[in-house]
Every structure is written in C-alpha cells, then in structure tokens.
Amino acid sequence: MSSTHGAAADSGSTSLPGLAEIADVGVDRIRGGYSRHLFDDADRTLRDWFTERASRLGLDVERDRNGNLWAWWGEPGPNAFVTGSHLDSVPGGGAFDGPLGIVSALEALGRLRDAGHRPARPVAVVAFAEEEGSRFGVACLGSRLLTGALHPDRARALRDEAGRSLAQVYADAGLDPAAIGPDPARLDMIGTFVELHVEQGRGLVDLDEPVALAASILGHGRWRIRFRGQGNHAGATPMQSRQDPMVAAAATIARIPDLALAVEGSRATVGRVSALPGGTNVIPSVVDCWLDARAATDDATNALLQSIRAAARDAAAVNACSVEITEESWSPTVRFPDDTRAAIGAHIAPRGQSVPALPSGAGHDAGILAAHIPSAMLFVRNPTGVSHAPEEFATADDCAAGIAALERVIRGET
Length: 414
Ligand SMILES: [Zn+2]
Hints:
The structure is a single chain. The protein is an alpha/beta fold. Helix content is 36%, strand content 23%. The protein has two domains: 3-218 and 333-413, Aminopeptidase (3-Layer(aba) Sandwich); 219-331, 2-Layer Sandwich (Alpha-Beta Plaits), CATH 3.30.70. Strands 1, 2, 3, 4, 5, 6, 13, 14 and 15 form a nine-stranded mixed β-sheet that branches. Strands 9-11-7-12 form a four-stranded antiparallel β-sheet, covered by helices on one side. It has a two-stranded antiparallel ribbon with strand order 8-10. It is globular and about 80 Å long. Mean pLDDT is 94; it is low at 1-12. The site of zinc ion has 6 residues, from loops.
C-alpha cells in the first residue's frame, strides 16, 4: 500500500461508492487523511450529505437535541432496530472509521427497500456526534449525552482548543444548549443496536475472514496530566534553578511504555502535548499531556493509571513542579451479550457456520449503548491493521461482505 497521503485518501474512495461521495470532505493537507470534527465545515458537509442520501432513500431525517442524526424507515416507534456509526474522525484519520458503518447501513437499507422488504419494526440509521472526542476531548460524546453517561453540565462546560465552549458551539449549530442531556424516550425506542465498523487491528487478517462480530471492548479512559512550573527566560535562567514542566512531562512520558508493559495486555499512549505559552525561547509555565490508557479489566486499567500517577508525581518533584491529573472520560470494559451476538450471527451465517468473535481495543458508541440495550458490532477486515491514520483500509470485496452481512441482519431482525 502506498504511504503517500493522497493515495491513502484515494484508496478509501475507490473501494466503496458511498465513501467516494465524501472522499473530498475534510481532507487534511497537513496531517494527511481526514480531519472531520464536530460541527466544523467538514462535519456540517457530511451531515448535509447524510441527510440528502437518506432522504433519497425515502428515510425521514431528524436531529436529536444532542446533535445525533437519525434517519427513519417508517414511523419512529418502540422496539426500533437501529444501525449506524459516526461521521467524525480523529485528526488526520482514515476514510473508514465511522463512515463505513453509515455508508454500509444506507446501502443495506436501500437494497432491502428495492427488494420489497417491509420491516415489521421501525428501522433507523444513526450518525452519532463526536465519537472520536477530537474537538471536546470526550469520546462518544453524542451517545454519552443520549444515555446520560455524561452529565449535561459537564458537557456544556467543555471547551475546544480555540477556547469555545460546547454550549456556544451547539448554539451556533442551531441546537439549544439547555436541552442537551439524557433522552430516555429516544433510548427506550431502540430495541437493538448494531454498529458496523472497520476493524482497528489484525484479528480478521489472522483469521483470514472478511467479517466478525465483537466480543468485547477494552475498558479505557482519557486523562489530562497538567504539570505546572515557573515560566521563565530560556537564556537568562540557569539550568540549576529551573522549574521546567516540559522536562517533568517528558520524564513521565518516557516511563509510560515500561509501566504499561508491566500490566499484561494494557496500552497507554500520550498522543497530544501542549505547552503554555509555547515559545521556543521560553521555559513553559504549564505543560498538558493527554493520556489514553486501556486494559483487559477495569482493575488492570486502574492499576496502570496508579503507576503512571506515581511516575508523574516523582517527575514533578524532581523538577520542582506540581502535577494534577484530571479524568476526561472513562468507559468500563464492555462484554457484548452472548445471546444478541448469537442471534445476529445466525442471520449472517444461517446454515450453522459460526461468525468469529473478536475483542476490540478501540471504543465505540455501541459500547456506550450496550449498557442500556441489546447491542452488537460487526467488524470488516482491515488488511493494514492500521487505524486512526490514513493507511486504514478495507477492500471493495470486504466492504461488500460487510454490507451483505448487515443486510441479512436487518432482514432477519425486522
Ligand atoms: Zn469509529
């Protein structure tokens, strides 16, 4: 596979016609891949595309008070079968993470409609808002608001990198910031949720299969680690008398791989650092690092966090700095229910063959919904194993296998 950014973005557009329609939206010329963040120009364009695409299929599109989009086949009502994913991306993300689930859902519904299928229960395609948390720092923002997993007061106060509050951004998008939060009436309408998603590892490559169901999602969380020191002149401040929070941050980050290796199966990443005031000739006064940590059990994730916390305190003390660790989001380990997975699997492979089940190291809206309603996930093989990067990929054949599987699931369930 080519590693040039343009080719990677093109590869996404060639494997599935629906993705080709949005291949130019939110292309990130600096990072490569796509940057599509809540209510930015790209996200608005994708929302318009979704509305237009769904309307053409005869679906009724509505936006809920948390900014999620719902396209209904038939009257919204109880025991609905809902499928979908998200349209937003990480900074410089791939073409498939999120949009593949939405394009596949619309494609599957279109085929069922063309084949004369008349669903016996309401069906909807959902596009959840800000799944990646790239603008406001909280992953699965839309599904957390819907289910009440994120308190609306906390959500309204979230700020993006430009300092704009979520309340302002929602208001600018025509949503009432006072109305965001738990939506039990809508949640009660969902009878089953199935999210199709590109696999974010090599499980299906190793199994030599195009499609799998999800068994579980690793528990994971995000924390902001803020080191405070003394901002000062880079030339006039002797090395002996510095309180440099960048050095404390660097020392902590350098220890994280070993700390994670000590907790079996865990992963810890600092993918984002910011320094205040951020001048080349200035010792920073504040350095923020954002930690993403995940492990097989919640106890293991906690153990890993405690060891990183201790390392940050040590590094702060050595550098005469202080440190403060704030949780930004936390998702416990999710095990998708066996009976739902068996029922969905039986639709996909009706003659008793079994569909493989894989654990997911990545978080998903389906993991948030699973705490409230029977939920399942379908993974489509990613030959590169790379995700959250332009090299993320799925072949046209595997995308077709994913759509066919989802079509059988919707037909069987509705
Ligand atoms: Zn995703």
